[in-house]
Amino acid sequence: MPSLTEETTDWLLDSDAALRWQVERDLLGAPEDVFEATRARIATEGFGARILSHQDPDGQWAGGAYFPARDRDLSGLGIVEHDEDGQPWIATTWALKDLRELGLPGEVLSGTADRLAEHSTWEYQDLPYWGGEVDVCINSFTLANGAWLGADVSGLVAWFPAHRLADGGWNCEAEEGDSERSSFHSTLNALVGMREYEELTGDSSLRETRHAGEEYLLERRLMRRLSTGEVVGPWVEDFIAPSRWQYSALAALDHFRAAAVLEGTAPDARLTDAVELVRAARRPDGTWLQGDVPGGAVWVQIDELRGQPSKWLTLIGTRVLDWWDAARHP
């Protein structure tokens, strides 16, 4: 039985090139020359072209590494803002993360890695950009972004195994001494960054560390407290796109799917609870609804607001279920 109706498939294909190429590759099994031709359009049209158009001459966006520069006048740039008190998603790290996840080929940003090495430092202690800082989520994004752009991120490769906590994962608050317990959010961000580093570079030196961190989530079935078995928080089933830094069962499953594809392994049975949660959230027409998207400034609105059918979540949810069902019932 097809996982998508013809109507829903057409709806997904009628999209920005950044989404369409992934639908062609992951859901329709199109030939490589077809989806790569679609992917090549990201640099010149739609979401990708708009974000690219706002890059500063020094390689940054909005004049800052993680936050816009305080003295930068951003008026008149057409920024989309749903909540002026929300986190701004327009500085360098977020722009790079968006472009990478949209599928922009790294060579389009040729020279950016060197410009950032020269001109960009973190708001935290003015640390050099490609060396990262103390926040595991920021370091995860930077590890993947650096691998994508060919930067020297060897310091970050060493950072992740050195900063894994005793219970198996990571926590952004650990470096401040505020917590010695791992966080679902931080751990997933660390895992995604390490996996994407391996995908982009072919260097598997972080695989053992990643596997150990994955075990932290697997022991908890991606959604439950180890002590009580209760669901760890409402955000587990609050699926949003783009996910930014937030954890959800769907975002975690998409990581485990990609890791299994990378390594040629079968799904772990401990993913079952999370898979069924995602399946239950699927609407009769095969779509998923957008969750509680955080407010804040963005260069471009790439998905719907809360409560609307989400093309990105439908892409991600469908490829997760297709992968799981194909492996369990070949």
Protein model, in words:
The protein has one domain: Glycosyltransferase. Helices cover 46% and strands 2% of the residues. Helix 2 packs antiparallel against helix 3 and helix 5 packs across helix 7. The mean pLDDT is 95.
Shape by Cα distribution:
globular
- Amino- and carboxy-terminal Cα gap: 13 Å
What's the oligomerization state? Answer: single chain
- Tell me, rounded to a whole number, the average pLDDT: 95
Task: Determine and state the CATH class.
Answer: Mainly Alpha
Count of helical regions: 13
User: Which band does the percent of strand residues land in?
Assistant: under 5%
By CATH, the architecture is named: Alpha/alpha barrel
Largest sheet, in brief, is: 2 strands, antiparallel
Structural class, from helix and strand content?
mainly alpha
User: Unreliable segments (pLDDT under 50, ≥5 consecutive)?
Assistant: none
**CATH fold topology:** Glycosyltransferase
Strand order of the largest sheet: 1-3
Order of helical and strand elements: HHHHEHHHHHHHHEEEH
* Helix amount: 40-55%
Q: Number of folding domains?
A: 1
What value does the Rg take, in angstroms?
19 Å
Short note summarizing the structure:
With 330 residues, the protein is mainly alpha-helical. The protein has 13 helices and 4 strands. It has a single domain (59-328), classed as Glycosyltransferase, CATH 1.50.10.
